[in-house]
Amino acid sequence: MKSPAYLLFFSAAFLFSAAVTPLIRRLMLRWHITDNSKQGGRKIHRGKIALGGGFAIFFACVLVGAWAFIEGALGSDISPRTLIGLVFGSTVLMVGGLLDDRYTLR
């Protein structure tokens, strides 16, 4: 695949992530998944800051990655099984991170 195709998929993931971020922020504030400066420690911000912003990036990368796979832009070197494993592993990490943001796990 030539570089203009990579640029297309990168741009699509970037724009989709930027578009979804405000929605994710509202959800995190509604679900009280926030970092609060009143919790002590080295917090330097004021008020509640929504966590979970990586979810927007993850969601955008998975959707654009699926689009690239369907279009055949990834070539034949990457098998569907490899992509499924990558998405599954990434999902486990995202869920773990989201749970850590919500419940401050050890």
Could you provide a short overview of the structure?
The chain has 106 residues and is mainly α. The protein is 66% helix and 6% strand.
Tell me about this structure.
By secondary structure, this protein is mainly alpha-helical. The chain is built from three helices and two strands; from the N terminus they run H-E-E-H-H. Strands 1-2 form a two-stranded antiparallel sheet. The longest helix has 28 residues. It is elongated. The mean pLDDT is 85.
Produce the secondary structure layout.
Layout: H1 3-30, E1 34-36, E2 48-50, H2 54-71, H3 80-103
Antiparallel strand pairs: 1-2
Helix pairs in contact: 1-2, 2-3
Mean pLDDT: 85
Secondary-structure-based class equals mainly alpha
The number of distinct β-strands equals: 2
Into which percentage range does the β-strand content fall? 5-15%
Give short descriptive properties of this protein.
106 residues; mainly alpha; two-stranded antiparallel sheet; 3 helices; elongated
